Structures are given as C-alpha cells and as structure tokens.
Automatic annotation (TrEMBL):
<keyword id="KW-0851">Voltage-gated channel</keyword>
<feature type="transmembrane region" description="Helical">
    <location>
        <begin position="440"/>
        <end position="458"/>
    </location>
</feature>
<feature type="transmembrane region" description="Helical">
    <location>
        <begin position="224"/>
        <end position="247"/>
    </location>
</feature>
<feature type="region of interest" description="Disordered">
    <location>
        <begin position="696"/>
        <end position="737"/>
    </location>
</feature>
<dbReference type="GO" id="GO:0005509">
    <property type="term" value="F:calcium ion binding"/>
</dbReference>
<feature type="transmembrane region" description="Helical">
    <location>
        <begin position="71"/>
        <end position="95"/>
    </location>
</feature>
<dbReference type="Pfam" id="PF00520">
    <property type="entry name" value="Ion_trans"/>
</dbReference>
<feature type="region of interest" description="Disordered">
    <location>
        <begin position="1"/>
        <end position="23"/>
    </location>
</feature>
<dbReference type="GO" id="GO:0006816">
    <property type="term" value="P:calcium ion transport"/>
</dbReference>
<dbReference type="InterPro" id="IPR002048">
    <property type="entry name" value="EF_hand_dom"/>
</dbReference>
<comment type="similarity">
    <text>Belongs to the calcium channel alpha-1 subunit (TC 1.A.1.11) family. Two pore calcium channel subfamily.</text>
</comment>
<keyword id="KW-0407">Ion channel</keyword>
<dbReference type="GO" id="GO:0005245">
    <property type="term" value="F:voltage-gated calcium channel activity"/>
</dbReference>
<keyword id="KW-0406">Ion transport</keyword>
<feature type="domain" description="EF-hand">
    <location>
        <begin position="372"/>
        <end position="407"/>
    </location>
</feature>
<keyword id="KW-0812">Transmembrane</keyword>
<keyword id="KW-0472">Membrane</keyword>
Length: 759
C-alpha cells in the first residue's frame, strides 16, 4: 500500500492518515484537483496538506497536472488491494511448510505430537508458490504504477522507489528459485535456506510510511545507543571480573563462576534479573555476607545503569522524532506555497480580498466553517492582513490555513439519501435524525451494552455449570446482535457511510457487529453443516470484544478521563513501533526456524537433561513459524529467556546459538521495547499536564474566543448559531496525537528549527 506522497504537519506515526487518502474526502478532492478551477484546486491542496496526503509538489507543477491527478487517485482507490497483498505476503510465513519438513501431506513435518508444531494448517508447496507468484505480480504493479503519475525521472531519482524495485527483484528471484525447487523436474532436492521470508518483511516496512519513519528514527539514535551500550559492556566486564576474583575459591566459583567467561555469562543474565536469585544462591548458602555484592550489583546495574541507558536512548529518540515532525511541517508549507502559486497566477506575490474570499468559500467544502456573508469577507481580509498592506502574502495565507485546521473540524460528506431531498428532509426523517444524533440514542446503546454484559456473564456461568438454561441466554445474545445491526444501519442512514466510517470506534463496531451476526446466523441455521461454526466459544469471545465499547463510560468519569484519553491517543502513535517490533520478531523467527527447526522432538538424544526438557519447554520451539513467534514473545517479556538460550545451545551443540538470543534481547528488548515503555510514561504525564492546563484555560476564558477565532469571525456578523452543524468550533486541537507529540517534543522541535536556521 502506497504511502502518503504528501507529508504534512501531522505526526508521521498517526495511523489514521498513514499511507493513503481518507475515504471521506477522497471523492471531493479528486473531483476538485482533477477537474476544478484554480480555487477549488487550491482548497483541495490546503485540505490534503493538513491530512498529509496527496501528489508530490513536483507533480503539482507539471503541465499535465490533471491527468497525473486522475492516475494518482486511481492508484489510491486500489489501496485495499495493495494492503491485502502486503498482508498476505507477511502472513504467508505463518502457513508455509518449514524448509526442514520433507514428508508428504497431511503431515509434511511428521507427527505433530512428536514435533510439537504450532497447530496452524500448512499450505502445500505448490499452493504457497502460486500464492507467492500472484503476490509478486501485484507487488510489481504496485511498485511501478507511480511512474504513470510521477514520471520516469522523478521515479528513478527517488531512493525509496529504487529500494522498492531492488526488493521486488530479490523477491522475484527467490520465487523463481523456489519454483525450481517445487517443480518435480527441478534439480534441487533440498533447500536449507530461503531469502524470500526476510524480503517479505522488508517489503512491508518500506511500503508503510509509519514503519519507515520508525526505522529512520531508530537508525538516527543507533549511534547514541552504541555509545551507551559500550558503557554498559564495560560495567558488565568489570563487574564479572570482580565477581570472578571474589568467589574464586568458593562454592560459587567452583559451580557457576568456573571461568571468567562463565562468570561474564551468568552476570550478564543477572543484569536482566532473569536468573535471580538462583545464580547467587550457592554463595549465599556459604556466606550471608555475599548478598552485599549481588544486591549492590543489581541495584546499581538494574536501577541506575539500565535507566541511564534508557534515558540516553530516549533523549536521542525524542530528537529524531522532532526532526520528523519539522520535516513534515516543512513539507506541508511547501504544499501551501504551491496552492498560493496556483492562486497567484499573475505572479504578484500576494492575494487580494476577492481571491481570499473565493478560496475561503471553497475551503468550506472540507471544514465546518461558519456561514459568512459576502459583506463580511472584507472584514476577515483586514483581520488576516497582519502587515497592514492590504495584501495577503504566503506567510499570512499559511496562518489562515493553520487557524482553520486548528479551530474547525472536518466537514461531513453529504449522506447518500440527500440525493432524495423529499425523503431526507421529510418531517418523519428529520425526527429520526434528531433521535439518532441525540444523547438519548447514545444512552440507549449504552444500556444495550450493559444488558449484553449481564447476558454474557450469565450465559458463560451457565456454560461452565453445563446448565440447560444456557441456550435461552444464547438466544438473548443473538437478539442483541440484531439490535446492534439496527443501531449500525440507523447511523449509516443518518450520517452517511463515509462519515460513519471516519470514526475508528464506528469501524470497530461495524466489523464486530457484522462478524457476530453472520457467525451467529450460520451457527443457529447450519450448526451441523459447517464444522467451523459448530464451536460457539469463539463467538463468545467476539461478544466480549464488543463490550470494549463500554470504555466510553470511563470517559464520562473525571478521574479516568486522562488515563483513557492518553490510551486512545497512544494507540495510533504506538502502532508503528509495535509493528516494527512485530517485523523484527518475524525476521528473527524466520532465522530461528531455518537454524533450529526440527531439532526439538520426542526421541532427540540431546534433549534429556537439557534446560528445555527439565523445564518442560519442548512445546515452545522453532519447529514452525507460529511456534517460533510464541517463543520470541516470551523472550520479549524476558520471562526465563535464558532457559531457551541454554537449552538450544545444549541441543545444537553450537556456541554461536547464544548470539541469536542475545542479539534479539539487545535489539527488541533493551533498545526498542523499553523505548516504547518510556514513551508511554512521558505521554501520560504530558496528557495530565495538558488536561490540567485546558481546564484552567476554560475557567479563565469563560467562553471568550481566541485571537484566531476572532480573526475568522471578522466583525461579529458571522453566524454563530450553536444549532448550526457547521459551527462546531474547537477550542483547542488537544484531541489528537499531533497535539500530544508537539507538547512532549516542544523543546526538541524548537532546537531542531533553530539548528536548521543557523545551518
């Protein structure tokens, strides 16, 4: 799926605007850019600049701009196909037969009970090959399609496009190699290694802007991390040498600290507290005073050195993130400048009041601006004219666009039923619209959720007790499911599907509701014909997931507002970093399956006495991709992670096994995962501060309009009727991730800007 080609001041990690154009405004902007007049085009460019999507500035200046715009929007309309293709490529790793498996179906890896496999069904090698070839063909179209609207020169001069082409060629070559392996006439009988699974992960990363920004940020802080990691290594080397000397002639030295290498190994694991207190029990049994050394080591290492590492890395992380925000804002200003050039067709370097008035009226297509009479345009023009020269230059136009994006919501698209005005504006339908938009309707939905919660609790309890009354409560849940369908249909009819789909909460409700209703209907109508629907347990899990909507009740409670608000804001911001963590796990899992696949099984003579066998960890292995991902998750949370490291070294007999586990710990846990934790903590404190400041400002202002709003209202004759749905003025833009990030990174952003100005 293609990234947003036109970055903006919004955060690069904002998943709502990541890699595509918002569907709720695509149609209007497409028509304006491809076939509108210059004012309609400029207004669409202003709107897409705020969203961070659209055509590159270079394309905007091309003479065949309208033709390129049409091709670009065709490309955007295919985003669901691009996204599905990337998803299939990534998930293909989970369903491929591991390379070490050489037996025939239905058990290509042998007895599942013997080899402790993950349980997911395998695609045959031929099915995997067909699916991969199809994905490569679609990926090739996706990769080279931008040539149509960017042009050959711009495409091949872009480093990102060159990287995409290189990865496509590598994946295609690996697929051809796999074809020779799968073909019965092929000369290759055994394939111990494949490059394709690694390339798939890289292709997903380079095609998603949020993940690319994560990689760019992490690469920027790598130097600082290596510096502080060297200090950590010196601490471990010195502490291990000291421990080796102190316990040389003790039981500790004779059992666990036999050599300096053994001591360094055990002390490094102790730094992660994974083997605490087992590793120093022999010394403690012999002398209670030995606890002084280990307690000081743990306190200094875990609570000082570790936090020092985290502080240095996080400080560097904030600096890199600030650079991304500044770059995005600069790109946004470029687009606004291009819009200015489009309006200033005579090259005067300024806009007059007639031009501003026409632009202002066109911007109302995308923003909930109040209605302004023609005679008020002149007052607004003078209010915006900071220089007092009766001309609006680039900077003043940018101020206007910033004020609009800060103070006014996105305008809704017309609902489909508005095409039938006699029905849409009839008395009965107006009453229905008022009801659906009222607080009463929301309270009814919350009441349904509470009833649903009680029904799920009772039905689950009766199921555990094997009571025959369980069936009646299942019918209650089934009926509630259709009530949710009624709620969904009413909202879609009243608001329109595009406006309904704009909300992440509505998208969650839609997917859950449709899935549950379809599943329940098939379960009760065809219980014996479809085996998959014979098990009703998974439907209960979806019902419980739907109850997550009850979190909206927490927002109504003062004490939980900050916590819930921070959580909801951080979800889109953290998703790219969690996505990078998942991609790293996929990368290491592929390596683990290729290196350790098939060695953990009943009957392996190396297993008895190993750490894996003694701790009954054989079911968690790298025999296939699903099993390996479970192991890596355990390593990610550092729960007894050294047991797998010791166990696999014992089973393989290879000394390099330790590097696999240590590299994953350093990269995924010490470097990335702790970074996410630190970001969550600071975001929570920043949100608390913003919440307190907003409350104080609300009380102090007592309803006074801000300077920006006063400028937009002009001389006071602007309509401010609160009943007008187009007058939804926002006091501050504190309800999105951008405001939170800009608050956290305010000092770093100013520092970055000053450095660029001085450079």
């Amino acid at each position: 799926m293609e990234e947003a080609l036109l970055p903006s001041g919004s955060t690069p990690a904002d998943s709502r605007r990541q890699d595509g154009v918002e569907s709720t405004v695509l149609g209007r902007r497409e028509r304006a850019i491809a076939g509108g007049d210059r004012y309609q085009k400029a207004a669409a460019m202003v709107d897409q600049a705020d969203d961070g999507v659209g055509l590159p500035v270079e394309v905007l200046k091309q003479p065949n701009f309208e033709h390129c715009a049409k091709l670009y929007f065709w490309f955007i309309w295919l985003n669901p196909i691009w996204a599905l293709n990337l998803t299939i490529l990534l998930l293909l790793n989970f369903f491929e037969v591991p390379l070490w498996c050489r037996e025939d179906f239905p058990n290509p890896c042998g007895d599942p009970e013997k080899f402790y496999l993950g349980g997911l069904p395998y695609l045959t090698r031929t099915e995997s090959l067909i699916l991969e070839v199809t994905c490569v063909v679609i990926l090739a179209v996706h990769t080279f399609f931008p040539i149509a609207f960017n042009g050959n020169k711009l495409f091949w001069d872009t480093r990102l496009d060159n990287i995409k082409v290189l990865l496509l060629v590598l994946l295609a070559g690996d697929t051809i190699f796999n074809l020779v392996y799968v073909a019965p006439w092929g000369p290759i009988e055994h394939l111990p290694f494949r490059l394709g699974p690694y390339i798939r992960v890289l292709i997903v990363v380079v095609n998603l802007r949020g993940l690319r920004d994560c990689v760019k940020t992490l690469a920027g802080i790598l130097g600082d991390f290596l510096d502080i990691a060297a200090l950590l290594l010196l601490f471990l080397l010195f502490s291990s040498w000291l421990a080796f000397i102190l316990f040389e002639d003790t039981i500790q030295g004779k059992t666990l600290f036999k050599t300096y290498g053994d001591t360094l190994y055990q002390m490094s694991i102790l730094y992660t507290t994974s083997n605490n207190p087992d590793v120093w029990l022999p010394a403690y049994k012999q002398s209670r005073f030995s606890a002084i050394f280990f307690v000081i080591y743990i306190l200094f290492g875990v609570y000082f050195v570790a936090n020092l590492v985290l502080s240095v890395v996080y400080d560097s992380f904030k600096g890199q993130l600030a650079k991304l925000l500044v770059e995005a804002e600069n790109a946004r200003q470029e687009v606004l400048s291009a819009a200015f050039d489009l309006l200033d067709d005579q090259g005067r370097g300024y806009l007059d009041k007639q031009q501003c008035g026409k632009l202002f009226n066109e911007i109302k297509t995308y923003r909930t601006l109040p209605h302004i009479a023609d005679e008020d345009i002149e007052a607004i023009f003078y209010a915006l004219d900071d220089s007092g020269d009766f001309k609006i230059n680039r900077e003043e136009l940018a101020d206007l666009c910033n004020a609009i994006s800060l103070k006014f919501d996105k305008a809704d698209e017309p609902a489909y039923l508005e095409k039938f005005p006699r029905l849409y504006h009839s008395q009965k339908f107006e009453a229905l619209k008022r009801f659906v938009r009222s607080d009463l309707f929301e309270k009814i939905v919350i009441g349904m959720l509470l009833v649903n919660l009680v029904a799920v609790i009772i039905e689950t309890t009766l199921d555990i007790q094997n009571s025959t009354s369980q069936k009646s409560w299942q019918y209650v849940e089934f009926a509630l499911g259709w009530l949710y369908v009624v709620e969904m249909v009413l909202k879609v009819v009243v608001y329109g599907f595009n406006n309904y789909w704009r909300s992440a909460q509505n998208r969650f409700d839609f997917v859950i509701t449709v899935t549950i209703v379809v599943a329940e209907t098939l379960t009760y109508t065809l219980p014996n014909k479809i085996n998959f629907f014979a098990n009703e347990e998974w439907i209960r899990y979806l019902l419980i997931a739907r109850l997550l909507r009850l979190t909206r009740l927490l927002v109504l409670m003062e004490r939980y507002q900050v916590m819930v608000s921070t959580f909801l804001k951080l979800i889109p911001s953290l998703m790219p970093y969690l996505g990078i963590t998942f991609c790293i796990m996929c990368f290491f899992c592929t390596l683990g399956v290729q290196a350790f696949g098939g060695i953990i099984y009943d009957g392996n003579p190396r297993l008895p006495g190993s750490a894996i066998e003694e701790n009954d960890y054989m079911v968690k292995n790298f025999n296939d991709f699903p099993s390996g991902m479970v192991v890596l998750f355990d390593l990610l949370i550092t729960g007894n992670w050294h047991i797998w490291m010791d166990g696999f070294q014992e089973v393989t007999g290879k000394w390099w096994t330790q590097f696999y586990f240590w590299s994953f710990y350093v990269l995924a846990v010490l470097f990335l995962f702790n970074l996410v934790v630190a970001f969550v903590l600071e975001a929570f404190f920043a949100e608390m501060e913003m919440h307190s400041t907003a409350k104080e400002s609300e009380v102090a202002s007592d309803g006074d309009s801000s300077d920006d709003e006063q400028k937009l209202q002009g001389n006071g004759r602007v309509s401010r009727d609160p009943r007008d749905p187009r007058n939804k003025v926002k006091r501050a833009r504190n309800d999105n991730v951008s405001s939170l990030l800009n608050h956290i990174l305010s000092a770093e952003i100013e520092k970055t800007r000053s450095m660029k100005e001085n450079a």
